[in-house]
Design a protein that fits this description.
- α1 packs across α3, α4 runs antiparallel to α5 and α5 runs parallel beside α8.
- The chain is globular, with a radius of gyration of 20 Å.
- It has about 230 residues and is an all-alpha fold.
- It is about 85% helix and about 0% strand.
- About 5% of the residues have low confidence.
């Protein structure tokens, strides 16, 4: 099971870095200088350290949830350790979705004012504040649950769908207004929603696979006893 966790994590990293990040550049689209210099802009994005923070959050979150769902030995040891990790990862990603939705709505409402006001520092401060807030929510929600990872993954899937329902219309609106910077913000939001949605499928698949394996093992042991 751990080997499959590694394979899924590597595949997810390849999708994020090789597909979703270039897709974020393409979402800007149009007959603009940004679009004509696609390769150069893609190189610039990979060279921006700020962009690697949400990418790292997605990649590390995927790995953490995968290996938490594969390893169930914590049930006999220290469940609160894994409770803290699960809450931290889930709240970090939900906070990322929330920030993406907020900045997309702000750029749609008044792109010039909002983008002048919202810089990298304020965006990361908002992310950190929402991370703490969502962390409390997840702790209260998951502290009495025996299926923490399953519930966290469901929240991430639902949150990504809700975020996309907000951000996609925002992207359509700002593209029709021909604003140079706002589509970058909404394009980031779309890619973030898709990344978290794909992230939630990995642990779900492994949990389902493990459930079938456990059922098969119990059936085989029952047959051996009889």
């Amino acid at each position: 099971m751990r080997r499959w966790g590694i394979v899924i994590s590597l595949l997810y990293a390849l999708i994020v870095l090789g597909l979703l990040v270039p897709s974020a550049v393409e979402l800007v689209g149009g007959e603009t200088a940004f679009w004509r210099d696609y390769a150069g802009n893609l190189k610039d994005i990979y060279g921006t350290w700020q962009i690697w923070l949400p990418i790292a959050a997605a990649l590390l979150g995927q790995a953490a949830l995968l290996f938490l769902s594969v390893d169930t030995s914590w049930k006999r040891l220290k469940p609160r350790t894994h409770l803290g990790v699960t809450c931290a990862v889930a709240s970090l990603l939900i906070a990322l979705l929330t920030v993406a939705a907020i900045v997309a709505c702000g750029a749609t409402a008044n792109a010039n004012w909002f983008l002048d006001y919202m810089d990298w520092g304020k965006a990361f401060a908002l992310w950190a504040g929402l991370w703490a807030l969502w962390g409390v929510v997840f702790y209260l929600y998951l502290k009495d649950s025996s299926r923490m990872v399953t519930h966290a993954v469901k929240w991430l899937l639902r949150g990504s769908v809700l975020e996309l329902l907000i951000v996609v219309p925002c992207h359509v609106i700002v593209r029709r207004r021909d604003e140079c910077c706002a589509p970058i913000v909404t394009g980031f939001g779309i890619v973030t929603g898709i990344a978290v949605m794909l992230l939630s499928f990995g642990p779900s698949v492994l949990l389902l696979y493990k459930k079938h394996l456990d059922g098969y093992t119990r059936t085989r042991n029952a047959g051996a006893v009889s």
